[in-house]
């Protein structure tokens, strides 16, 4: 039994807080005043950290995508002139050339006068064209003849000469230039 006593742990008796002077409880001290020189330093550090936090929050939540500058709007007559110039490359192929020129003129009329020209047949478009006051009578007659000539090449396998194709091209270009800008009102309801 003597062996088991040697392995036993001896626990010292509890001591009272009032018995020792070093172990006595002390009262809470009041706030320690900062020297005035360090107060300004802490204010500056706090303001800098607050500014960094504000910049971080702004960049994280309120920053918008970079604004792309708006491209200048190209007027319909200029787009039509570019398409007509591109169509000249097809001059040796009558059907694709007439398709490109008539489609260009139809798209121009839709963009310029808000006609629904591209998705309609020639007959449907010409019926609606006669009911509008946006073009004068000579322009309406021109469009009737122009679209009929183009349809002959596109659908009736008519083989025009290069001179005829250039004539179609210059006629389309002439109509675009004639109607490019606001026209004085003519026809019904015109104020003189």
Q: How would you describe what is shown here?
A:
- The chain is 57% helix and 0% strand.
- The termini are far apart.
- The chain has helices at residues 2-6, 36-62, 76-87, 94-113, 122-130, 137-155, 162-178.
- It has 192 residues and is mostly helical.
Tags for this model:
single chain, 192 residues, mainly alpha, Four Helix Bundle (Hemerythrin (Met), subunit A), rod-shaped, disordered C terminus
Q: Pairing-aware structural class of the strands and helices?
A: mainly alpha
End-to-end span in angstroms?
134 Å
Q: What is the total tally of β strands?
A: 0
Residue-averaged pLDDT? 79
CATH-level-2 architecture of the domain at 76-178: Up-down Bundle
The Rg value, from CA coordinates, equals 45 Å
Sheet-strand content, in percent, reads: under 5%
**CATH class (first level) name of the domain at 76-178:** Mainly Alpha
The helix count comes to 7
Q: Helix fraction?
A: 55-70%
Taken in chain order, the helices and strands follow as: HHHHHHH
The CATH topology of the domain at 76-178: Four Helix Bundle (Hemerythrin (Met), subunit A)
Major sheet characteristics: none
Which regions have little confidence, pLDDT < 50, spanning 5+ residues? 183-192
Overall spatial form: rod-shaped
């Amino acid at each position: 039994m003597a062996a088991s006593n040697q392995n036993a742990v001896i626990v010292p008796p509890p001591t009272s807080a009032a018995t020792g002077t070093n172990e006595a409880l002390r009262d809470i001290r009041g706030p320690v005043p900062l020297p005035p020189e360090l107060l300004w330093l802490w204010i500056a550090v706090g303001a800098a950290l607050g500014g960094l936090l504000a910049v971080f929050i702004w960049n994280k939540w309120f920053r918008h995508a970079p604004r792309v500058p708006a491209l200048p709007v190209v007027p319909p007559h200029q787009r039509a002139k570019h398409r007509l110039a591109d169509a000249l490359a097809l001059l040796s192929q009558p059907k694709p050339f007439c398709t490109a020129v008539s489609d260009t003129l139809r798209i121009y009329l839709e963009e310029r006068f808000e006609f629904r020209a591209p998705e309609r047949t020639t007959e449907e478009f010409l019926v609606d064209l006669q009911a509008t006051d946006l073009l004068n009578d000579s322009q309406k007659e021109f469009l009737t003849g122009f679209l009929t000539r183009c349809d002959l090449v596109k659908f009736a396998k008519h083989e025009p000469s290069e001179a005829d194709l250039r004539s179609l091209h210059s006629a389309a270009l002439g109509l675009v230039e004639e109607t490019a800008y606001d026209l004085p009102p003519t026809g019904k309801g015109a104020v003189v």
